[in-house]
Every structure is written in C-alpha cells, then in structure tokens.
C-alpha cells in the first residue's frame, strides 16, 4: 500500500514538472510574440487553463473528458486547433478549425502511434485540395504515453510553423500524459484500498463471529430477551462491517458500530470490561477511512484487557484540535514491549495486533506520512493508540447512503461503562 502512495507522490511531482515546463515555454512564446497583455496576465490565464484541463483529464481518456479539455489546451497553445485521439487514432475531440483536414492526417497519426514518436508535417505534404489560403500550415502529432503504452495522441494544428510551437506541443502532450497517468494510479490506489479493507474484514471477523455467536447462544435459554437484543446488535454490526460500498465513513457512524461491538463483548466479559467515552460532538462528522477504529478497540479488548486478571478500563477519546480531530483508544491492560512495535507496518502480519499495520498504511496513504499512528505502550502499563484526522482532505468523502440508514445515536461526551 505504501508503494502506491510513493508512486502517487512521484507522479504528482512529475505532474508539477510537466506543468512548469509548459508554463515556461508559454512565457517564452508570449515574449517572442510581444503580446499586448502583460506576461503576468498571460501566466495567470495559462495556470487557470491548465488547472481546468487537469481536472478534466483526471477522469480518464474519454470523449467527454477530451471535449472538456481540448478548448483549454487550444487556448493555452493559442493555435488553430487541438485534437485528442484514442489509441486507435479515432478522434475523441477536435476543438478549433481545419477539422475537415483529419482525413489527410490519418497516416501521420498512425505513424505516431505505431512508432511512439512525434510526427510533424506542413501543409504542402498533406495533399490539401482547398482552393485559396488554408488555416492549417503546420501539424504536430504527439503520442500520449501512459504507463509505457500509447493511450492516444495530441494533435496541434498551427497557422505558422515554428520550433517553439513544436516544443510546446511536446510539453503539452507530456502534461496530458501525466494527468492520465495520475488517473490510472488513483484507480490503482482505490482498488488496493478496497483490497486492504477486504483483508481487514477477513482478519477481524472469524474470532469475533465465533465468540459473539457463542455468547448469544448461551443466553437463549437463560435470558432470551437479552439474546434477541444481542442478535440484533450483531446483525447491525456485520451489516456495517461487511458493506461493499465506500472507503470512508464518519466518526459518528464508526462509533455507532463500536457501540454494537462493545455491547456484545460486554455481554461476554461482564464487569471485566468497562468503557469510558469522551467524545466531543463537534468532531462527529469528521471523515476517516472505513474500519480504522473498531480494530483498535478490538485489540484493546483482546490483547490488553482480556489478558489482565480482573479486566480493566477501555477509554475512547475524540477531541477537537483546530483543523484536526485527535482520536485515541486506550486501555489499562497488560501492555507490551515497545520494541515489538518498531516495525509497526508489519504488525498485522505477525498477528500481534489485528490490522494495526493495515490501519497505519491506510492513514499514511490517505492523509500523508504525518498521519501515521502513534502507539504508546509498556509492559503492565496498558496501550494507547493515537490518530490524527484532518477535518478536510481532498477526495475523502463519507458514504452518505449508509449513514442515512443508521438509526442508533452515536455516543458523545463522557459516559460510563456500556450496558446492554
């Protein structure tokens, strides 16, 4: 998972480099033409166009995305026309004039795709039969290379032939390719994130399902009403945990599910499991990766308190901290040697703690390296896991449909032990 984050960062850097390259060449072009407006205004306009084209291209190389991007690219290049084709040379979008000349360009586009190399032709070699002056003087066809393969081409039609225009076409194609690569990496990142969630479910569910059903079955004869309530809590817990849509959730929804989990576990452990909640209402709508808190709570119960004679206290805290929410899961259980957590990214592979490495990787990938988990522990001194969650992060949105289906009220403020 970290590799995907590193790859995304590397591609983002490449995107910035490509943007700066296009911007630099554009400034040179403006100065060479002695445009009437200031260079500063031209640069601002260029940045605005690049920003709009960038967001359009992040949707992938589709006709809709190309139709939105080509007008911005043409304005950037200040040329006669800009077109984008797919990997077979089929035009997805053509913005500007001379679009009837594409028939003369088919062979040129095919060569650019097959050879993965730019092609430059002038009007004299196109066989244009137009009587009188033609707006097309020069054409540059540059392959759009994504992940090492040609995904399409960028066609730049100019009214004049110049080396600067050719260079601008090349750099713009590189910019477009980088945006398309970022879109591919984003899809890969989402696919891996979904795989991580599936792996986490598989890791958590077997022992808890077994113990929960055993607890419920033991109450069927002695306290059928309580058993029925626990069965309902278990059904809602599994429905939430095994949902198939959405990679993110709100703190309120995560706490509601944790309440279900703890209700079932308290029926099992009785007075050995005490819970204290300190939840600030203003952070309930903070969005965080799906299933990052429940595994930490489960670790506290299984590895901290269940192994301590007489049990102990589990404390869940969420407080406002400016642009972030500070969330902690703490137990006063048996603790562990801190050296066991030196390589926290592999902790989930050893089985020492359920999913802790998975959660750490997801937090770092979604929010950045500065949002890695912080773990404080020592033998016989309990364990505290701290998460920082930004209140706002790009592309981090909750699954609103699920939230509307939940009817349980999340727990807020300081509350004593949960009772069924």
UniProtKB/TrEMBL annotation:
<protein>
    <submittedName>
        <fullName>Two-component system LytT family sensor kinase</fullName>
    </submittedName>
</protein>
<keyword id="KW-1133">Transmembrane helix</keyword>
<feature type="transmembrane region" description="Helical">
    <location>
        <begin position="12"/>
        <end position="30"/>
    </location>
</feature>
<feature type="domain" description="Histidine kinase/HSP90-like ATPase">
    <location>
        <begin position="284"/>
        <end position="393"/>
    </location>
</feature>
<dbReference type="InterPro" id="IPR003594">
    <property type="entry name" value="HATPase_dom"/>
</dbReference>
<dbReference type="GO" id="GO:0016301">
    <property type="term" value="F:kinase activity"/>
</dbReference>
<dbReference type="InterPro" id="IPR003018">
    <property type="entry name" value="GAF"/>
</dbReference>
<dbReference type="InterPro" id="IPR029016">
    <property type="entry name" value="GAF-like_dom_sf"/>
</dbReference>
<dbReference type="InterPro" id="IPR010559">
    <property type="entry name" value="Sig_transdc_His_kin_internal"/>
</dbReference>
<dbReference type="Pfam" id="PF06580">
    <property type="entry name" value="His_kinase"/>
</dbReference>
<keyword id="KW-0418">Kinase</keyword>
<keyword id="KW-0808">Transferase</keyword>
<keyword id="KW-0472">Membrane</keyword>
<keyword id="KW-0812">Transmembrane</keyword>
<dbReference type="InterPro" id="IPR036890">
    <property type="entry name" value="HATPase_C_sf"/>
</dbReference>
<dbReference type="Pfam" id="PF02518">
    <property type="entry name" value="HATPase_c"/>
</dbReference>
<dbReference type="Pfam" id="PF01590">
    <property type="entry name" value="GAF"/>
</dbReference>
<dbReference type="InterPro" id="IPR050640">
    <property type="entry name" value="Bact_2-comp_sensor_kinase"/>
</dbReference>
């Amino acid at each position: 998972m970290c590799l995907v984050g590193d790859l995304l960062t590397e591609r983002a850097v490449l995107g910035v480099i490509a943007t700066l390259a296009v911007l630099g060449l554009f400034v040179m072009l403006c100065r060479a033409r002695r445009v009437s407006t200031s260079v500063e205004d031209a640069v601002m306009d260029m940045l605005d166009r690049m920003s709009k084209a960038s967001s359009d291209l992040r949707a992938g190389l589709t006709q809709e995305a190309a139709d939105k991007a080509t007008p911005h690219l043409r304005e950037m290049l200040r040329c006669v026309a800009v077109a984008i084709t797919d990997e077979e040379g089929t035009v997805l979008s053509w913005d500007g004039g001379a679009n009837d000349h594409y028939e003369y360009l088919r062979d040129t586009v095919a060569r650019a795709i097959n050879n993965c190399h730019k092609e430059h032709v002038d009007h004299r070699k196109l066989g244009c039969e137009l009587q009188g002056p033609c707006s097309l003087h020069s054409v540059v066809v540059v392959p759009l290379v994504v992940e090492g393969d040609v995904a399409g081409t960028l066609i730049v039609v100019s009214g004049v032939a110049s080396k600067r225009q050719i260079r601008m076409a090349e750099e713009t194609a590189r910019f477009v390719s980088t945006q398309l690569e970022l879109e591919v990496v984003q899809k890969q990142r989402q696919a891996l994130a979904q795989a991580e969630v599936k792996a986490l479910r598989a890791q958590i569910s077997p022992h808890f399902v077994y113990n929960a059903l055993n607890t419920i079955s033991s109450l069927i004869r002695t306290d059928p009403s309580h058993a029925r309530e626990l069965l309902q809590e278990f059904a809602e817990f599994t429905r939430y945990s095994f949902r198939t849509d959405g990679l993110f959730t709100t703190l309120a929804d995560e706490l509601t599910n944790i309440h279900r989990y703890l209700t079932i576990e308290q029926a099992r452990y009785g007075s050995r499991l005490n819970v204290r909640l300190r939840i600030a209402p203003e952070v309930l709508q903070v969005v965080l990766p799906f299933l990052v808190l429940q595994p930490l709570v489960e670790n506290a119960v299984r590895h901290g308190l269940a192994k301590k004679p007489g049990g102990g206290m589990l404390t869940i805290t969420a407080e406002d901290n400016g642009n972030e929410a500070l969330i902690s899961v703490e137990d006063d259980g048996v603790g562990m040697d801190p050296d066991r957590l030196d390589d926290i990214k592999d902790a989930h592979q050893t089985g020492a703690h359920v999913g802790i490495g998975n959660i750490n990787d997801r937090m770092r990938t979604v929010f950045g390296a500065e949002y890695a988990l912080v773990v404080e522990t020592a033998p016989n001194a309990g364990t505290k896991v701290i998460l920082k969650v930004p209140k706002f992060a790009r592309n981090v949105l909750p699954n609103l449909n699920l939230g509307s289906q939940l009817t349980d009220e999340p727990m807020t403020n300081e509350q004593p032990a949960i009772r069924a």
